[in-house]
Specification:
Chain B: It is found in: Cell membrane. The structure holds 2 protein chains of 2 kinds. Chain A is an alpha/beta fold. Chain A is built from 7 helices and 9 strands, in the order βββαββαααβαβαββα. In chain A, helix 2 runs parallel beside helix 4 (about 140-155). Classes of the chains: A alpha/beta, B mainly alpha. Bound molecules: adenosine-5'-triphosphate and magnesium ion (MG).
Chain lengths: ~260, ~300
């Protein structure tokens, strides 16, 4: 509960921030959403999960965040703070961008000046400078997502969870946000667990892609992505990219049947 | 693919029906009539109420002078006599204006108390299912028991003066505040709740930073309903609790028992205007408080 100082040096790359061992989740109504999930994420790793709709991807994130609990197996999180970006931006409509971005720092009991500074920095990082005073309803979908991202960034999390954050955006906005997120990831070095429906987005963003099967969801395949951190949109048109994306798609179809 | 075709055809037919002069083809042709239609709407929205008002006044005159014998015209005195025999008669206005003031005091006192009690009641219920289950039936009871049946009791307990009038107001105004506040708090977005849970927000923080702000539009809608009701409450209270200086309700009953047609109608109009004023005042307050971010109130502007 006690809030660590925001200036504390981030843990080094390579520290394990999330570990799932044989995690299962059965809901009271009998639905088995997850079964036998093993997963380790370290700082500096960007892990993406793709899988058919309803296979338990959100459940996986909810367990990682502590919003839900595994019904079997162990889920260990070793992060000072967790960032969680939902599919909806979930901004509070009565708060300005600035105030929305300050919310989590406020909830964590940071001082007013630290909160304010953290928000300004985060707003700068996601490119929302000049929009601080706007209300959410005056923002485009992409800008809302940026604000939501900035809100989590104020906490300087070691573990970042993303639940299809760009799913509702148009392709151009989505690709731009992909690039910005990669830039943030390289700069901050957090560990990321990212969920998407898009194979192309998964391969483009990640250091590792996990493929989940249909319900009960478990991880059926894992692909290391060899492209390094310096990724540009042109990467999407290289044969290597197409080959890997093809393999992931294939695994997805296999797991689906 | 085949399913979209009939829809397109239907749209075209509708366009033709609405603006027969316009070529019924391109979508690009619609903006012009749209603008014109809106302007016409604006004109009618100002003109129409005036026309209706004039028509009502005309009917009123017709009833007074065409249907009522001169000896019975006090039943419906002509509109202008409200001005000549009431508004401009100091004997009448010396009664009406102070009574108006007292009615305002009673209804605002009642409303203020109802707001405090109602919101605390709703907040208490929102914090625990058990509290809600045990307290909500009483809120409903308040709505269902005819207040008039309790009036004699209130008189016995609190005497037949100011306090009893205020209590009637509170009882009438309470329910919309309780139910709207509770509804507002309970309809907070689940995603927002999870955000607060995720970051371990306490009960009070959640209430102050999430639930109450999110509920404000509903709360203000409740205030507006209750404000109108508390004016009704003040008038009803007057009719039963006649101790002390009279409010509008007492005047209404006095004028009517003395067959003073013009003063009676004048007082009715004043009462109605008070109701309207209170309703609009709270509409304005709501707009100031949440209009900035709450979409619904944009329509009003
Ligand atoms: N609280 C719950 N009670 C019962 N069943 C649930 C509950 N939450 C989720 N489920 C079920 O568990 C399964 C997995 O849900 P989850 O939301 O994790 O899927 P998902 O992979 O995120 O799907 P999508 O891609 O559509 O977002 C679904 O079949 C869902 O209906
Ligand atoms: Mg999901």
């Amino acid at each position: 509960m006690s809030a660590p100082a925001p200036t504390a040096p981030p843990a080094a790359t390579g520290t394990t921030v999330l570990q799932f061992t044989d995690v299962a989740r059965q809901f009271p109504d009998g639905t088995v959403a997850l079964e036998g999930v093993d997963l380790t994420i370290q700082r500096g790793e960007f892990v993406t999960v793709v899988g058919p709709s309803g296979c338990g991807k959100s459940t996986l994130l909810r367990i990682a965040s502590g919003l839900d609990e595994a019904s079997a197996g162990t889920a260990t999180v070793d992060a000072r703070r967790i960032g969680y970006v939902f599919q909806d931006a979930t901004l509070l409509p009565w708060r300005s961008v600035q105030k929305n971005v300050e919310l989590l720092a406020e909830l964590h009991g940071m001082s007013k000046t630290a909160t304010n500074q953290a928000a300004l920095d985060a707003i700068e990082l996601v490119g929302l400078r000049g929009h601080e005073k706007k209300l959410p309803r005056a923002l485009s979908g992409g800008m809302k997502m940026r604000a939501s991202l900035a809100r989590s960034l104020t906490l300087d999390p070691d573990l970042f969870l993303f639940d299809e954050p760009f799913g509702a955006l148009d392709e151009i906005t989505r690709e731009r946000l992909n690039d910005e997120l990669i830039r943030l990831f390289v700069a901050k070095g957090f560990g990321a667990l990212f969920i998407t429906h898009s194979v192309s987005e998964a391969v483009y963003m990640s250091t590792r892609v996990l493929v989940m099967s249909g319900r009960p969801g478990h991880i059926v395949d894992s692909f290391e992505v060899p492209f390094g951190t310096d990724r540009t949109p042109e990467l999407r048109f290289t044969p290597e990219f197409a080959k890997l994306a093809g393999e992931v798609s294939h695994a997805l179809r296999e797991g689906h049947s | 693919m085949t399913a979209t075709l009939p829809t397109a055809e239907e749209t075209r037919v509708t366009t033709t029906l609405e603006s027969p002069t316009q070529a019924p083809v391109a979508a690009g042709a619609t903006p012009a009539p749209l603008v014109r239609r809106r302007r016409r709407n604006k004109l009618t929205s100002y003109l129409l109420p005036v026309v209706v008002f004039a028509a009502l006044i005309g009917v009123w005159y017709a009833i007074t002078y065409l249907f009522l014998e001169p000896g019975k015209r006090f039943l419906m005195p002509a509109p202008h006599t409200l001005i000549t025999d009431a508004l401009l008669d100091p004997v009448i206005t010396d009664k009406v204006w102070p009574a108006l003031g007292r009615t305002i005091v009673v209804s605002f006192a009642g409303l203020g108390i109802a707001i405090v009690i109602g919101m605390l009641w709703a907040i208490a219920m929102s914090q625990s299912k058990a509290v809600e289950a045990s307290l909500y039936p009483y809120a409903v009871a308040l709505q269902c028991i005819p207040i008039l049946a309790l009036v004699p009791l209130i008189g016995f307990w609190f005497d037949f003066g100011f306090e009893s009038r205020v209590i009637v107001c509170v009882m009438i105004a309470l329910f919309p505040i309780v139910s709207n506040t509770l509804f507002g708090i309970q309809s907070v977005d689940r995603g927002h709740h999870e955000l607060f849970t995720l970051h371990r927000a306490g009960r009070i923080t959640r209430l102050v930073k999430l639930q109450l702000p999110a509920a404000l539009p509903a709360i203000f809608a409740g205030f507006r309903i209750s404000a109108g009701l508390s004016v009704v409450g003040a008038i009803v209270g007057d009719l039963f609790f006649k101790k002390g200086d009279p409010g509008l309700g007492i005047l209404l009953s006095n004028f009517s028992s003395r067959l003073q047609g013009a003063p009676l109608f004048f007082t009715i109009v004043v009462t109605a205007v008070l109701g309207f004023a209170v309703f609009f005042l709270f509409g304005l307050l709501a707009k100031l408080a949440v209009g900035r971010w709450y979409d619904q109130s944009r329509d009003a502007g």
